[in-house]
Automatic annotation (TrEMBL):
Matches recorded under Gene3D superfamilies: 2-enoyl-CoA Hydratase, Chain A, domain 1 (3.90.226.10)
Ranges in coiled-coil conformation: none
Name by which UniProt lists this protein: Enoyl-CoA hydratase
Superkingdom of this protein's organism: Bacteria
Any one GO MF annotation of this record: catalytic activity
Length: 354
C-alpha cells in the first residue's frame, strides 16, 4: 500500500463532520469513497453524534480498533460499514472482522474502493437498504443496482480488459437429477467449466428446484457439484451479453435460482467444495443447511469488475454473516477458508467427503 494517503479521522472528527464533505466532484467523479475511523474512548454525546453521522454518511466507513469494541461504542461500530479489530480480540460480533494488521487491511479496502468507487458505494448502499427488507424486495434492490452498474464505466473497463470470449458450448446435461423416495439430489454437471453459473446451468437448476417446490413428496433437496469445484461463479463468457439492462433485471429476479432456494430453505442442503466464487456461495447461502468440504474457499470478486454480487449475494450472505462481513468479503475480494466460514456462519458444518 505504499504511496496511498489513507483518509482517516477520529470518533470526534466523525462527530464533527469528517464524513460529510461532498463525495462528488464537478464532473461527477467520486472523492474519497472510503473513510477510516480510528475508534477510541469518547463521551456519550460524542458517540451519539458520531453514530448519527455514520448512519447518514455517503462514504463507506471502516472502523479500526486495537481490540474488541467495548459496550460504550458497539452502537457506533454497528453504524459503520465494517470494523477491523486486532486478532487477539475476543470472538467478535458480525460487525467486526479480525485482522493481523487492521490499518494495513483498511488501506487495502481503500485501494479497492478507489479502483472501483461507484461499485463500492453501490454495494454499501444496497447492503444498508436491503437489511430491513424481506428477501424478495431485497433481491429487487440488488438487481436494480446491478443493472445500473452493468451500464457503468467501471464494468465497461473490465469488459475491455477481459477481451472478447466465445460463448460456452452447449451442454448435454448441465444438471443431473436423482430421486430416492423423498430425497431429490441435484448435481451441477459442467465440471469442464467448474460448474460456472451460465444460462444453461441456471435454467436447468431452476427447473429442478421448481419441481421440488410443487412436489410435496420431496421432503429433502441436496444440491452439490461435479468436478473440482461446486461452482466457480457466473460464466465470464456470458457477461455483458444480455439484450438490454431491463431484461437482465427480469432474468436475475424472475428466472434465477436464489428465490427458489430461499423458498425451499427448510428442505434444502447444499454441499460445497473447492473454489466457490460469486454465485458459488451466493446461492448456497439461501439454503437452510450448507456443508463445506475442508478444502473449500469462498470469494466475491464482483466489485473489482465494477459490479456487486448479482445472484442474490447481497441478500443471502448478510442474512448469515451480517452486512458488515459481507462488505469486507466483497470489497477485499479475499478468499475465505472453510474454518472462517464456519466461525462466521456462512456455512453450518465442515465435513470431509462428498
Amino acid at each position: 500500500m505504499d504511496g496511498i494517503s489513507l483518509p482517516r479521522c477520529s470518533v470526534t472528527g466523525l462527530a464533527e463532520g469528517a464524513a460529510a464533505a461532498p463525495i462528488l466532484g464537478e464532473n461527477g467523479e467520486v472523492i474519497d469513497p472510503l473513510l477510516v475511523v480510528d475508534l477510541e474512548a469518547a463521551d456519550a454525546g460524542t458517540l451519539k453524534a458520531a453514530t448519527h453521522a455514520a448512519i447518514v454518511a455517503d462514504r463507506v466507513l471502516v472502523g479500526v480498533a486495537a481490540g474488541e469494541p467495548d459496550e460504550q461504542w458497539r452502537g457506533l461500530s454497528r453504524a459503520l460499514d465494517v470494523t477491523l479489530v486486532a486478532c487477539g480480540a475476543a470472538p467478535p460480533g458480525p460487525e467486526l472482522v479480525r485482522s493481523a494488521d487492521p490499518v494495513a487491511d483498511a488501506a487495502a479496502l481503500y485501494a479497492a474502493a478507489t479502483a472501483c468507487p461507484r461499485a463500492t458505494l453501490t454495494l454499501a448502499q444496497v447492503l444498508r437498504a436491503g437489511e430491513p427488507l424481506d428477501v424478495r424486495a431485497a433481491l429487487d434492490v440488488e438487481s436494480f443496482a446491478y443493472s445500473t452498474l452493468l451500464g457503468g464505466t467501471e464494468f465497461a473497463r473490465w469488459l475491455t480488459a477481459r477481451g472478447a470470449r466465445p460463448l460456452p458450448p452447449p451442454a448435454a446435461e448441465p444438471v443431473l437429477l436423482a430421486r430416492d423416495d423423498g430425497l431429490l439430489r441435484i448435481t451441477l454437471n459442467r465440471p469442464e467449466r467448474r460448474n460456472a453459473y451460465g444460462r444453461e446451468l441456471r435454467d436447468a437448476l431452476t427447473g429442478a428446484l421448481r419441481l421440488a417446490t410443487v412436489d410435496d413428496t420431496i421432503t429433502r433437496v441436496v444440491l452439490d457439484g461435479a468436478g473440482p469445484a461446486f461452482c466457480a461463479g457466473g460464466d465470464l463468457g456470458e457477461f455483458g451479453t444480455t439484450p438490454d439492462l431491463a431484461t437482465a433485471h427480469l432474468v436475475r429476479t424472475r428466472a434465477g435460482a436464489g428465490p427458489l432456494l430461499h423458498a425451499l430453505a427448510r428442505r434444502a442442503e447444499v454441499r460445497v467444495h473447492g473454489s466457490c466464487v460469486g454465485a458459488g456461495i451466493e446461492l448456497p447461502a439461501f439454503a437452510g443447511h450448507v456443508v463445506a468440504a475442508p478444502d473449500t474457499t469462498f470469494r466475491l470478486p464482483e466489485v473489482s469488475m465494477g459490479l456487486i454480487p448479482g445472484a442474490g449475494g447481497t441478500v443471502s450472505i448478510p442474512r448469515r454473516i451480517g452486512r458488515w462481513r459481507t462488505l469486507f468479503a466483497a470489497l477485499s475480494g479475499r478468499a475465505i477458508d472453510a474454518d472462517t466460514a464456519l466461525e462466521w456462519g456462512l456455512v453450518d458444518a465442515v465435513e470431509s467427503g462428498r
